[in-house]
Write a structure and sequence with these properties.
By secondary structure, the chain is of the alpha/beta class. 32% of the residues lie in helices and 19% in strands. It has eleven helices and 14 strands. The strands form three sheets. The protein has a six-stranded parallel sheet with strand order 1-6-5-4-2-3, with helices on both faces. A six-stranded parallel sheet has the order 8-9-7-10-13-14, with helices on both faces. Helix 1 runs parallel beside helix 6, helix 3 (93-101) runs parallel beside helix 4 and helix 7 (210-217) crosses helix 8.
């Protein structure tokens, strides 16, 4: 058995591809964000999806068994679920063993390590398969220094988790590069790392070293170079705000974009906590972010309008732009609204 623990400082990930995406028994799209992100941004490396009977989510890819996927060229089963706590439930184990028996390696970005699960370790050893845990920070991360670094930085922040921070960062990085400006997408979560091939799993870093990890993620660069940094969690999330704050302090963003999902009223998985207003997120991000970059500013708002038709999405975008006096866009829909948001980021 080979067990790989990826260190960011060791370079790009080398994952067995193509992937079969495992959605388990996900009941909401937010919990399947890893699979959805891979399907949207690395679809050419995915042959299909594998689900349990209770699953209520789909990536739109063909559903197939591990054996069928292996016959079509798949080389690994990638766990595409990001559940609360990052655990591998016992009810998944039969499906994961089935994948190993079909000839697939297992790839996971969850907190619980594949190699720590006896049945998976035993079967992987017997079959000669790899258990690959992506969510492993590199050794030797320093504490944050607060030192101002060269180059420009953009951070996506959110009113909640799982609503578009990664998609927004990817789209903005592509849009900036399309204008001939040097830019890099900097992944800070497991899905982004799988897409980009490198990054820093911020929520697996010990809290004292979060700011230092963010500094490593976005090092000194040319004065005209942009690092577009994938945000994590929300400053208003009762469980994950610490990760969001460490990433904010270490990123030292010159600009940030607030990501929001219209219609979501409470924090995902925590119905007793209401979604904060966009204004509250802007004010809090500036208040806290100014510690390491006093010049921090909000460049605009990114909306996830996937649940709206084109007319309703356009109306929502226009209403928020008028209310906040800032550019507002859905980065997936693109168009002139996204170009205005990029203009504001680069201004």
């Amino acid at each position: 058995m080979t067990i790989l623990h990826q260190a960011i400082t060791a370079g790009a990930l080398s994952l067995p591809q193509p992937y079969l995406l495992f959605l388990g028994d996900a009941a909401e799209r937010g919990y399947a964000k890893t699979a959805l992100g891979l399907a949207d941004w690395a679809g050419d490396r995915c042959v299909g999806e594998f689900v349990l009977p209770e699953c209520a989510v789909t990536t739109g890819l063909a559903r197939m068994t591990p054996a069928e996927a292996h016959a079509r060229g798949a080389r690994s089963l990638l766990i595409g679920v990001a559940n609360i706590g990052g655990v591998i439930p016992e009810r998944w184990l039969g499906a994961l063993v089935e994948a190993l028996e079909a000839g697939l390696d297992l790839v996971s970005g969850l907190h619980e390590r594949l190699s720590d699960i006896p049945v998976l370790a035993k079967e992987a050893a017997r079959l000669g398969r790899q258990l690959i845990d992506v969510r492993s920070p590199p050794p030797g991360i320093p504490t944050g220094s607060g030192r101002k670094r060269s180059g420009k930085r953009l951070l996506t922040v959110g009113t909640d988790c799982a609503l578009g921070k990664k998609y927004t960062a990817l789209a903005l990085a592509e849009g900036i590069k399309a204008r001939g400006v040097a830019a890099d997408f900097r992944a800070s979560g497991q899905t982004g790392i799988m897409i980009a091939g490198a990054g820093m799993p911020m929520d697996a870093v010990v809290s004292d070293f979060l700011a230092g990890a963010a500094e490593l993620l976005s090092p000194d660069a040319a004065d005209d170079h942009w690092d577009v940094i994938e945000g994590q969690g929300s400053l208003f999330h009762p469980a994950y705000a610490a990760v969001s704050l460490g990433l904010l302090h270490g990123s030292q963003p010159d600009v940030f974009v607030v990501c929001h999902l219209p219609g979501r009223e409470t924090i995902m998985g925590m119905p007793q906590f209401p979604i904060p207003s966009i204004r509250a997120v802007i004010d809090q991000t500036i208040a806290l972010g100014s510690l390491t970059n006093p010049a921090i500013r909000c460049a605009g708002i990114s909306l996830n309008t996937a649940a709206l038709d084109a007319a309703a999405a356009e109306a929502e975008i226009a209403a928020l732009a008028n209310a906040y006096g800032l550019p507002v866009a859905d980065p997936v829909r693109g168009g002139p609204a996204l170009e205005r948001l990029i203009d504001s980021c680069l201004a």
